[in-house]
Amino acid sequence: MEKIKYPRIGETVRWHKLKNGLPVCFVPRKGFARKYALFAIRYGGMDLRFELDGQWLDTPAGIAHYLEHKMFDTAEGNALQELAQNGAEPNAFTSNAITVYYFDSTEKFLENLKILLSFVSVPYFTDESVAKEQGIIGQEIGMIEDNPEWVVYKHLMQALYEKSPARVSVAGSVESISHITAQTLYDCHKAFYVPANMCLVIVGDVDEQQVLSLAEEVLPKESGSVIARDYGEEETLAPHEKEVRCAMEVAMPTFLAGFKCPPAPEGQERMRNNILGELACDVLLGDSSPLFARLYAEGLINGSFDSSYDLLPGVAYVGVGGDSKDPMQVVQAILDEAQRLVRDGIDEDYFQRILRANFGTALKSLNSFEAIAVSMAEGCFAGYDPYRFPEVYDSITKQDLVDFIRDNMVAERMAVSIIDPKEEEQNACND
Amino acid sequence: MEYTRREIMQDVFLTYLPAKKFKTSYLSAQFITPLCAETASANALLPAVLHRGTVRCPDMEQLSAAMDRLYGAQIDYTVRKKGERQCVGFVASAIDDAFVPRGERLLEPTAQLLGELLLDPVTRGGRFLSEYVESEKTNLIDAIRSVRNDKRDWADLRLMQEMCAGEAYGVRRLGDEDSAKKINNRKLYQHSQELMSSSRLELYYCGSADERRVTDALLHAFAALPRGVVEPLPEMRLYDAPSQPRFITETMDVTQGKLAMGFRCASRDVPAMIMANLLFGGSSNSKLFLNVREKLSLCYYASSSYARSKGILTVSSGIETKDYDRALEEILRQLRAVQEGEWEDWEIPGARSTILSSLAALPDGQGAMENWFLGQNATGQTETPEELAAQLAEVTPQRIRAAAQTIELDTVYFLKGKEAE
């Protein structure tokens, strides 16, 4: 057992490793009624090509997400229902790199945990139930394809990346999921849903010994192996396409610009890279920035304007966008401001304020059990400790941020995705 | 849950929710006013304009800088609809003083900033800055229009507009585009003075500071609050369903159709109605979720919600256009099942367990607590989450049936795709 104290943020965390190798993390929360358990698998929408028993397999887009939907089926019925009957609020999501199953409950925590650990470990698919899910997921795909926020993002990823599976939608397409069978699902489960590839995080006021005993009892004894994945040839840092534009029923144009960045390292350096990129975005584009104030006052952006630095397996990018009556003008303003900042430097008082603000935001996120659990799982998979953020903030200099902006926020790295309001003759986004 | 509610100034109430378990302290100031078509847009515009600058921090950059200096204190304006009340104001959240380096205190300056945003806006010639008014007017109109982007929200809104056309409840949270366009600076400024002096002000604090310190900080911050006569709010009426339900269909370029159904519920047994709604479509174990979604794959989502203060229940579902008739039939069949008491042994305990769990978890979130008490205070209800939980624990199957039997279909709104199969 490893117990770590973080006095600067008033936290204590305890890590255990089960006999089968599964890492289990406890984040105690005295005084809260709710208890939260999250079971994470290092398997997401981008893990389409992997090695199992010496063979490389290619799987259809959307499979990790499909698997997530089907995991709730058990020989006894449906785990989602079982958990809900116990008053728990269960849910799951699949992202580019991970799948998580979690529940929140105020009572019957151990009973619910047993259900969670069982249904995730024991796959149960029939051809009939797999076929039925095609309809439901097909509808989910239809629903997100009606969402301009989703479409503008999907088009950006396809514009930035030629080969990386980052360009593929996590849910796949109606066509790609039609190739999924019960056998494919069993194979993927067998490969990835093993202790060597998973992590359990518990947040709340729980009896740790009881949780550990339960986990030892319910989970498989074998640890499985760490799976090798192939994310394709390394991308150059130039975008595949510079601009993608289409029309949907929106009230005003919406856009998302992306800047390709070098992929981030693993380990504690990854966390530093992530924080650095986020700080650079905040300094250049955040709602305290001179750029934001000017563009907002000119009516070129509104409260929807936002930016982020995202790390995915093998790739990284800055995304920035929102609603605007003239997206290309905003994009040019961003490029100009990046150049100006590199030339003039960052005001010291402004820099200190941004550090304070980001530290405060990071601390605030510790109010959220879900945010804590997801970041602990991600840190476990990537080899860093998310609670070391105060030290990371201390280590970042103005020059670090200027370097990041100078190297990455340039036209040569940039693609722009735009959605315009529909007029009769334009090509629809769903064609 | 430990809490107190005291009148600290004339028609100004502080709800104090002590808690040491959060990383943040939470403050909220909300004016409670009747929701009506004539004032809704002006009320929605006002906090957005106020948020643009104060006398001390006259523009967004300076306001942002002040908040960043307070370790990223966040102050956002809010416009909420609770029953037939519009609640406008600000919510503020700052990291708890326990975590601030060098023992700096954040409660007092955050409360101060909150007070200044409401009471000390930057003005010129006795009015707001016209560039702020014009710019926020544009944003408000865009926001009013943009509900079209989320087709589910749009369908739910269209249902409300059609079903509650003659009622205050049919007024949108942000008002309407035409009213918003007619707002001018001078009228808005006058309106703000009137709103503040004639409306009840509800203040909320949740955090580790003691009550005396919080009261002092807020009394100091709101010392300049104008106080005139605060009229009691108009009573909210329940309406009957029409003798024949109305069916409305509209078309938009969507891949997935959106179905929104509105029902009137005459029952005043609110805990029983809450249970009936849960069984029908209020959870992932409900009849709508299990039957319309899981068993029949007719939709990706199907849920219901119940607005207590108006006795209105609504169903929201995403379906393929071609499945309209089947889905409608199935949803009504599930309602009849609740009305006839057709449920398996696990359904009622499951629904009860879900709601009791969520009520027990309310004190785990500062925003959730503030939103609860605001909802109660605005609509004249007084139960704490614990009291409602106790009422729900007592509800019998007979009461659920009786309440469900008062549910009558009022209006069906369907948004279908252009290529109807």
Structure description:
The complex is a heterodimer of chains A (431) and B (421). Helix content of chain A is 42%, strand content 22%. With 431 residues, chain A is an alpha+beta fold. The relative contact order of chain A is 0.16. Chain B has 15 helices and 13 strands.
- Determine Rg of chain A (CA atoms, Å): 23 Å
- The average pLDDT value of chain A, as a whole number, equals 94
Rg over CA atoms of chain B: 23 Å
- Tally of DSSP β-strands of chain B: 13
Helix/sheet category of chain B: alpha+beta
Number of H- or I-type helical stretches of chain B? 15
| Mean model confidence by pLDDT of chain B | 94
Which range best describes the helical content of chain A: under 10%, 10-25%, 25-40%, 40-55%, 55-70% or over 70%? 40-55%
Count of DSSP-assigned helices of chain A:
15
Name the quaternary structure.
Answer: heterodimer
Q: Characterize the main sheet of chain A.
A: 7 strands, mixed
Distance linking N and C termini of chain A: 55 Å
Properties at a glance:
heterodimer, A: 431 residues, alpha+beta, seven-stranded mixed beta sheet, five-stranded mixed beta sheet, B: 421 residues, six-stranded mixed beta sheet, 13 strands, 42% helix, 23% strand
Can you describe this structure in just a few lines?
Chain A is of the alpha+beta class and 431 residues long.
Topology readout:
The complex is a heterodimer of chains A (431) and B (421).
Chain A: E1 2-6, E2 11-17, E3 23-28, E4 35-41, E5 49-52, E6 55-58, H1 63-71, E7 73-74, E8 77-78, H2 79-85, E9 89-94, E10 99-105, H3 109-121, H4 127-145, H5 148-160, H6 174-177, H7 182-192, E11 198-204, H8 208-218, E12 243-248, E13 254-261, H9 268-285, H10 290-297, E14 306-312, E15 315-323, H11 327-344, H12 348-364, H13 369-382, H14 389-395, H15 398-408, E16 414-421
Parallel strand pairs in A: 3-11, 12-16
Antiparallel strand pairs in A: 1-2, 2-3, 4-10, 4-11, 5-6, 7-8, 9-10, 13-15, 13-16, 14-15
Helix pairs in contact in A: 1-7, 3-8, 9-15, 11-15
Chain B: E1 4-9, E2 12-18, E3 24-34, H1 40-50, H2 60-69, E4 74-82, E5 85-95, H3 107-119, E6 123-124, E7 127-128, H4 130-146, H5 151-163, H6 177-182, H7 185-198, E8 200-207, H8 211-221, E9 246-251, E10 257-265, H9 270-281, H10 287-295, E11 299-307, E12 312-319, H11 324-339, H12 347-360, H13 366-379, H14 385-394, H15 397-404, E13 407-416
Parallel strand pairs in B: 2-8, 9-13
Antiparallel strand pairs in B: 1-2, 3-5, 3-8, 4-5, 6-7, 10-12, 10-13, 11-12
Helix pairs in contact in B: 1-4, 1-7, 3-8, 9-15, 10-11, 12-14
